[in-house]
Amino acid sequence: MPDLAQDRMLLPTYEFKQDLIDAIREHAFLVIIGETGSGKTTQIPQYILEEMPEIKKIGVTQPRRIAAITVSKRVSEEQVTSLGKEVGYTIRFDDRTSSTTRLKYMTDGILLREAVQDPMLNQYSVVIVDEAHERTLETDVLFGLLKQTHRLRPDLKILVMSATLDVEKFSDFFDECPIFEIPGRTFPVQIVHHQSMKIQSLKSNFVSTAVETAFYIHTTEKSGDILVFLTGQADIERACQEFGDKCKELNYSRDVKYYEAEYRDDDVRDVAIYPLYASLETMEQRAVFEPARPGKRKVVFATNVAQTSVTIPGIKYVVDSGFVKEKSYDPNTGMDALLVTSISQAAATQRAGRAGRTAPGKAYRLYSSDSYDHMPPDTVPEIQRSSLLSTVLALKRMNIVDILHFEFIDKPDETLVMKALTQLFLLGAIDHNGVITDLGKQMNSFPLSPYLSRVIVSSAIEHECSEEVLTIASVLAGDHDLFRAPSPRQGEDVVAEAEKCKLKLAHHTGDHMTVLNVWRTWRDNDESKRWSRDNWVNHKALVTAKSVRSQLIDIMKDLKLPLVRARRIEIEKSGRKKDGRSRETVREVDAVPILKSFLTGYYTNVANKATGRSVFSHYSPDQHFGEKTSHSSSALVALHLHPLCALSDMFDRNKTKYSQIDWVMYMQVTYTNKAVMKGVSKILLDWVRSGKGHERIRQLASANLNGESAKITSKKRKQLLADDSTPASSAESSDT
Ligand code: ADP
Ligand code: MG
Questions:
Q1: ipTM of the complex
Q2: Which residues form ligand 1's pocket by a CB distance below 6 Å?
Q3: Is residue 306 within 8 Å of residue 134, measured between CB atoms?
C-alpha cells in the first residue's frame, strides 16, 4: 500500500508550498512554471484547498479529457475522499461533481461553455488554466475572457500553469504578472538520432519502425519502461498488436533457448503492453499508471497525451516517431481536417524529457539530427491553424460582437476569422450584421460542432426525423469508429468474416443510415456486448453514444425542440425463395429526410465521383453562381473513401454499384498520405441546390459579418455581461 501523503512531500512543488500560497494571496494573476511531473497539476490546487479556507471553489482546466479524469481521480485519492464529492471532474457528456465539490478539474472547453452561461464565473474563487503551453484553441480564448472577467471581478484569482520556459508571453498578456518558477528535478537524457532517416521518408512506415525500435530496446537495454509516441488510436492499436506478436515469438524462442544471449538484463523478459489515447475507457487507462510487476517491463504506446498532460511513472526509454496528429484548417472544405504531421523541436524536447523523470534515460528519435534541425522551433498555436467556428459562435453568444478586435494572446489569422464568420452565416447562426440568430443560440446550446448542431435542429423542425438523427449524431460525435477492423495477421478467414458482418449491417446509402442500422440491431439484441463482438461492432462506441444521446435529448427538451420519428416507407425487396424469385414489401425508415437534415449542416462538404475511379472531387457550391468567392480555389481535390466506409465495401464487392454513386456528402477528412473522407453518404445534388443554405451563399456579398460597425463600450459590455439574458441586437450595441 503506497503512502500517498508521503509521496506528496517528495514532489518538487512541496518545498514551495508556503511561498506559492503567499504569492497566490498577493496577486490576482500568477504564472507558474515547472517541469512536467513536478506536481503542478495535482498538488498546487490541493495546497489552495488545504491552506486557503477563504477560497470557495477552484476550477482547473486541462486541454485533454483523459487528463481531467486521471488527475481528479489521483487527487481525490490523495485527499482520501471519493471522486465527485470534494474533488470532481467535468468533461463533455460526463459530469462527476456535486454541490460539495470545491476542486473541479475540467476541460478548457467546459469552462468556455460555462463562461457563455455566466461570464462572471461566479461559482469560482480561483481559476487555474493548466498546461497553458499546449495553447489549445479553448485555452487561448479563455485567456482573453478571463482577462475581461477579471476587470469586472477583481477578486477572482487567475493562475496560469505551464511546462515550458517560454512564459514571458503569458506574463505580458496578464498585465506583466509575476512568474513563479519551480526548479525541476530531472536526470540527463541521452538522445539517439537515426543516422540518416529523413522525416519525410519516415512518414509511410513510422509505426513499424517505432515497433522495431521498441523491440530493440526491450531486447538490448537494461530494465526500465518504454514510452513510444505515435499519432492516434489506429496506429497505436496496430503497434500494440505487432509488438505483442514479436514478443510472443521471442518468448517461444527463449523457451527453446535461442535468444537467451540477447538479454542483457534477466529482470525484464516479460512485457506489459499498454495503449494510451484519449478515447480509451477510463479503466483501461488506469492500469498504465501502476508500476509494472517485478520482472516485467511496461511498454506504452501513446499519443501526444503523454507528452505533457499525464505523467507515467517509471519511463526510462522514449521512442519518438516524430509525428503527431493535429487539427488543421482545411481551406478546401472550410472545416478542420486531421493531419498527421511532423512535430516541432519543442515537442521533441518534451518527448525526450519523459525519459529522465526518475533516473537517467535515453530517447530514440526515429529521424536524423538533420531532420530535427529543420523542424519548426515551436508548435503553431491551435488558434492559428484551426477552423474558428465554435469559438466565434461562443464569442458571439457572449455578445462579443467584434471578433477581430477581441483580446487574443496571439491573434488568429484574419482570414480564418472571416472564414468562420462566413460559415456561421451560411449555417444561419449569425445574420447579415454578424449578430447571433435564435438558431445560432440553439446551436450553441449543444456541446457539438455547429455543423452537427445545425443538423439536429433541422431534423427537429424541418425534416421531422430528430429521433433517428439524434441517434446517428450521438454515434458520430464520439471519437470511436463504429466497426472494428481485424488485423490482417488474424488470417483471411477472420477478415472475410468481419467483412461479411459489416456488409450485412451496411445501408446502401452509406454511413449515416448504416449507423442507424447498427444501433437498431444492437437494441434488438438487448444491447449485448456479445452481439457487438460477434458482429465486429465497437461496443464502446454504442454504449457511449447511448449516454450522449440521452444528454442531447435533455438539451432538446430545454430548447423545446420536438423529438419526432422519421416516416416509414414501403420498399419492395426481391428475394429468392425455394420455388423461384419472389417479391415482398418491407417497411423501412425513409433515408431521404435524414440525409437532407445532415446536408443542412454539411452542404459545403459535398463531392462528386471522378469518372471511373474511386476518387472524388470536392464541390464548391459557389462555383455554381459563377462568382469567385471564398471557396472557389478548391475546385478539385482528390478525396478517397475511408476503408471502413459503408460505401467502400460496395466498391470492392460489386463494381456495378460503384457506377451508381454520383454525389456524396462527407463529415470529416483525414490526411496522412492522401485525403480520406469519413462519414460518407450518397446524396442528390438537387437536395443541395434546393436547400436553404445554398441560397445564403448568394446573400453573402451584402453581409457585414464581423460587426465591427457595432462596437460596444466597456460600460455597455459590463451591462451585457451582467445580464446575459439581454439579446444582442445591432440597435442596442451601436452606442459608440
Ligand atoms: P505536473 O502537473 O507538474 O506535470 P503532476 O501534478 O501531474 O505534475 O504529477 C506529479 C506526480 O504525481 C507525477 O510525477 C506522478 O508521479 C504522480 N501522478 C500524477 N498523476 C498520477 C496518477 N494518476 N497515478 C499515479 N501517479 C500520478
Ligand atoms: Mg500538469
A1: 0.98
A2: 11, 34, 36-43, 70-71, 74, 289, 311, 313
A3: no
